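[step 3/7] fold_predict: job queued, chain A
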Amino acid sequence: MLRCHLADTPMEATARLKEKKGEPVDKGRYQLLVGKLIYLSHIRPNIAITVSLVSQFMLDPYSFHMEVVIRILRYLKSAPGKGILLIPNGHLKVEAYTDADWAGSTDRKSISGYYSFVDGNLVT
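[step 4/7] structure written:
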């Protein structure tokens, strides 16, 4: 992917991930890429939501899901300097917020997310 086209966002705003769209892809390669993206999303929270969406298809990935994973990689290449900036604030206050979405689910699975701050810095 050295000469790939760069992406401005990790996923298109209008993209809807469906269970079986396109052709089946190599499950091992998909799981390897998404696993690495899950690890990376701990220090790059700007990809966390998209990575959580593609990780729902680890057992049965299709070409459309792989295209979204490749788009995440293209986005990461376009934004190498973006990441978490930690600034010392002189206190160790821990704050956490969470939310869940049941309305957008057609398969009885919920989508949830959370944010946690340490010393006023977003860490997860």
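[step 5/7] annotate
The beta strands are 94-101, 111-118, 121-122.
The chain has two domains: 1-83, 84-124.
exit 0
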